[in-house]
Design goal:
This protein has 440 residues and is of the alpha+beta class. The chain is 51% helix and 7% strand. It is flat, with a radius of gyration of 30 Å.
């Protein structure tokens, strides 16, 4: 066997711990940052909260440092339904336990509850349930029907329905009173929902013999019902409640962009036992980690503020007039202006929210491709077109709604060239019906 040596050169990129931490903090949301700080404090003896932060904000430090107790069923806060945040299935199981049932009925009920989706509809056919439920003798339709009625009668109105028609009827039956409008609404929900979707009130009137005015009133009642009643029990995630990272407001010299640092935990380094730190490598590493954390948090704030100010400066017309005047903007535009890498801009704008005069927006919202105008310049944002389309439809004559071709023509009058199929696509994004279905 012949032995030989080969020399091979290769390049590889290794991120230093400081850079890894910097990237992790930069792309984290406000909630995630506070969670990370909490982890560092629990693990690193050289970091602690600033006492001034808690006295100035009124926050309870013991709650923050032990926020894992929020997972305890006995813990109560405003985000929970009564004493805990129940899912729909948990709610149904808890409800049905109130009834006295045999073991057989309990098993059938379990399968029925499991067959109900998040919107509140039972999505498994009775024939399939009969095959799936391991009972002898086999479950029959009457058993399923009677137990399903218990679910429908003891739950939030509409839950346990097999289709939209039944869902609406269950809700109508729950309305107190026996006036004619409720009666007609039930008839429409049972047999004429397809006409409701297309606003064909006169056809419903002809087929039922009721006046057009009463049909319109009944349809208005139907439209007030909840087509997805199970969503009432959608579990609330605390992270869904967004605190803004930045705020933009009108100042004397223009628009001012400021950090909302009140919601961020304030920390400081505990610098003690210097001699011990020098001797113990593990302590030395922890002390270095603490210094990096403070430095990276400061750098994070500076970077986010720089990017946000540049984005808002570019979108000054939006700040004045709203979404209809959003300009097309690319990550590359900001990265070149600030001499940062595009990936950095992407991390900064993701999960960072800014409070504006027109509402709360994620920073990445302000980046969109451009559409060509009559000057052959890409200076009209796709988000601007969406806002203009929404505004046009909201202000159209409801008796004679505008066709897609007419909307294209109106936009062309503003110097915006857009294809009819693009308008159709944008209508779908905004959940706007075609003109023939918008007619009242």
């Amino acid at each position: 066997m012949k032995l030989s040596f080969n020399l091979k050169l290769s390049q590889s990129l290794k991120l230093t711990p400081l850079l890894q931490q910097s990237i992790k903090l930069l792309q984290a949301s406000q909630v995630e940052i506070n969670d990370l700080i909490n982890e560092y404090i629990n693990d690193n003896p050289f970091i602690e909260y600033e006492e001034e932060y808690f006295s100035s904000t009124g926050k309870n430090k013991s709650y923050i440092t032990h926020n894992n107790q929020a997972n305890n069923d006995d813990f109560y806060d405003i985000f929970e339904n009564q004493t805990k945040n129940l899912t729909l299935k948990e709610y149904l199981i808890e409800n049905t336990h109130l009834f006295s049932m045999s073991e057989r009925q309990q098993l059938i009920m379990f399968y029925l509850v499991d067959a109900i989706n998040e919107d509140g509809y039972i999505v498994t056919e009775f024939n399939d349930l009969i095959e799936d439920i391991p009972l002898n003798p086999k479950v029959n339709f009457n058993e399923l029907e009677s137990l399903l009625k218990i679910i429908q009668g003891s739950s939030h109105p509409g839950i346990g329905a097999r289709d939209l028609s039944e869902c609406l009827i269950l809700q109508l039956e729950n309305i107190k009173g026996t006036n004619e409008i409720i009666k007609i609404a039930k008839i429409i929900a049972k047999d004429f929902l397809n006409f409701v979707a297309t606003n064909k009130t006169e056809e419903i009137s002809k087929k039922t013999g009721f006046s057009n005015e009463i049909i319109i009133s009944a349809i208005k009642l139907i439209k007030k019902l909840n087509p997805r009643p199970g969503q009432v029990f959608k579990v609330i995630d605390k992270k869904d409640f967004i605190n803004h990272d930045l705020e933009v407001a009108k100042g004397k010299g223009g628009w001012d962009v400021l950090l909302n640092d009140e919601e961020f935990f304030k920390i400081k380094i505990i610098d003690y036992h210097a001699d011990l730190i020098k001797k113990e490598k593990s302590l030395k590493d922890k002390f270095q980690e603490a210094k990096w954390l403070v430095k990276n948090l400061e750098q994070r704030s500076i970077t986010i503020l720089r990017v946000a100010r540049e984005v808002m400066s570019y979108q000054a017309k939006f700040l004045e007039n709203g979404e209809k005047d959003i300009k097309p903007l690319k990550l590359k535009d900001i990265s070149e202006k600030l001499e940062m890498h595009e990936s950095t801009i992407s991390r900064v704008t993701n999960n960072k929210f800014i409070k504006t005069p027109h509402g709360l927006y994620e920073l990445k919202f302000f980046f969109s491709r451009g559409l060509t105008n009559q000057s052959n310049k890409d200076d009209t944002s796709s988000k601007s077109i969406l806002a203009k389309l929404k505004d046009i439809v909201n202000n159209e004559n409801k008796i004679r709604p505008l066709s897609d071709e007419k909307i294209v023509s109106l936009l062309q009058q503003e110097g915006i060239i857009v294809a009819r199929r693009t308008i159709a696509k944008y209508r779908d994004i905004l959940n706007i019906l075609p003109s023939n279905q918008r007619k009242e």
